[in-house]
Amino acid sequence: MALDLGLTQVSQLAFGYWHSQVLIAAVELSVFDALADGPLGVEEVAERCAVPADSALRLLDAATALRLLVRDADGGYANSRTAERLLTTGSPESLVRWVRVMGRWYQPWGRLGQALEQGHAVEDRSERLTDDPAYVEDFILGMHEYNSRTAEAVARALPAEGARRLIDVGGGAGSYSIAFCRVWEGLRAEVVDLAPVVELAGKVIGEAGLADRITARTGDYYQDAFGTDADVVLLSNVLHQESPENCLSILGRSAAALRPGGRVLVHGHFLEESRTAPVFTTLHNLSALALWSGGRSYTTDEMAELMTAAGLSDIEVLPTAEQSARLLVGRTAGAAGSTDSTGTAG
Ligand SMILES: C[S@@+](CC[C@H](N)C(=O)[O-])C[C@H]1O[C@@H](n2cnc3c(N)ncnc32)[C@H](O)[C@@H]1O
Question: Rounded to whole angstroms, how far apart are CA atoms 166 and 262?
Answer without folding.
Answer: 10
